[in-house]
Amino acid sequence: MNGTEQPQQAAAERPPYRPHIGETRPYLRDVILGVNDGLVSILLLVAGLVGGQLGSSAVLLGGLVGALAGAVSMALGEYLATKSQDEVWQAELSLEDEHIKYYRDEEAAQLPELLGRFGIDGEDLDEAVRIFSATDQRLKQAMAVLEFGVVESERRSPYRAGFMAGGMFLVGAAVPIIPFLVLSQPDAGLVGSFGLTFVSLFGVGWAKTRITNNPGLRSGLENMLVAGAGAGLAWWVGRLIDLGIG
User: Fold this and answer.
1) Are the beta carbons of 50 and 59 closer than 8 angstroms?
2) For residues 168-176, average pLDDT
């Protein structure tokens, strides 16, 4: 084998280059959580209503109201949670400014331990400490990442997080409702709702694994199994309430 064949063979054995997700990465959680919650919660809602022997019009109305309420709740909850987390981070960074201004030596003295967690030692550690403590801005950024885990590019906008979570909830919630728009019999509508929702749940689980590189079949089936068990329980709850009232 000559010298040119060996690098060519090594290159052929390498997997194809895959880029990172990019700036949308911090909001992937909102997308998955929103659409999954919309699918599951509204499927359980319509299953419970059908189990309670309500007609298609009542189930449709309940589903639409539930979708709207869930979307608003999801958007507001994600907005408040993200804003609160960002405010905590901002408070920590402001306190770090104060520490660097008045206790700079003490802050810089933490760098050897923090950087040592990456396996840096000896002269390399001394050089790294010198570089990161050379200016106040470098020291602050180093402490933000190493001490608090705050990476500027990973900080999430509360408005965008709330919009993504609420909007994707509505997208997911629409799926279990659609059959009741076209089918007059509630039982038939529930069967159609089950079918569409299960296909969508499998699709969400499978799509997620295209990013995380986990087994797609298992993730999709897990989604379907949990939702199916919950919908069955919701139907029986509705049925028992109907029998109790009757």
Assistant:
1) yes
2) 96
